[in-house]
Specification:
This protein is 58% helix and 0% strand. By secondary structure, it is mostly helical. It has a domain of 43 residues. The chain is elongated, with a radius of gyration of 22 Å.
């Protein structure tokens, strides 16, 4: 199946971190993931999870809106550099 996708270097073991991360995002508790993955240590399981940066993506929208409003309401002016 992997070769059919054109990903000959992808292995079943390479998919484990992605699957574990998806399960964590779905709300499966870490100790349950530990059992599913067969890890003796919860730290090993934690190492399989991709960093959760979803909060960064959700913050980008409001931040962009704020910057867009600020750019429309603030006149452009040149500032002299501040000395330290």
């Amino acid at each position: 199946m992997v070769k059919g996708l054109g990903l000959p270097d992808l292995t079943r073991h390479g998919l484990r971190p992605t699957g574990a991360t998806w399960m964590a995002y779905a709300g499966i508790q870490l100790h349950v993931l530990q059992d599913i993955l067969g890890h003796a240590s919860v730290e090993t399981t934690r190492g399989y999870l991709h960093p959760d940066d979803r909060h960064l993506a959700s913050a980008a929208g409001p931040a962009n809106a704020l910057l867009a409003r600020s750019a429309k309401t603030s006149p452009t002016r040149s500032r002299a550099p501040r000395s330290l």
